[in-house]
Amino acid sequence: MGKVSKPLMKLGVTGGIGSGKTSVCRVFNILGIPVFSADPEAQQIMNSDESVIRGINNIAGRNLYPAGRLDRMQLAELVFHDPEVLQKVNALVHPAVFEHFSRWAGAQNTPYVIMEAAILFESGASNLVDRVATVYAPVEERIARVTRRNRLTREQVMDRIRNQMDDKTRIKKSDYVINNSENEMIIPVILKIHEDLLNHLNS
Model's pTM, two decimal places? Predict the structure, then answer.
């Protein structure tokens, strides 16, 4: 009887590029909370779901799978310069990701689960979760993290930051805020959120 058959709550974890969402989710994972990462899931769907593959090629007007896998650079080039193409690709991929998330969440037996998504609000995924935690860090730290990790130039990282929702707007829409600056301790904040969710579930 002790085990919960279905997660009672869903927490969304979001933040801009380089904010450190993955590090935060790793801590939740150590606490026994399963994490669904929307971005890798979307990539997997774009490479394995036949109807999505057909849809992407139709939107692009050419084959973006020359080697059997999605040419992400070509797709990025297309969507970066044409908001309409981006909208069409999102309308194709997001519902598939949401469906995967709902199925996955239903199969867990923890008090709550996490959906980690960079564009949680923009994609509408925030409607699938009960509460949201935004992770943020100073822009210079984010740039340094991403240029180290992804070998992008400073300007390329700034382009991506400008293309995402700004921190102020994200924070306003969130229930929890995690400052992931290098000078801050994130573990006590995460433990507090974890405790708050469990208290809410037990009340």
Answer: 0.90
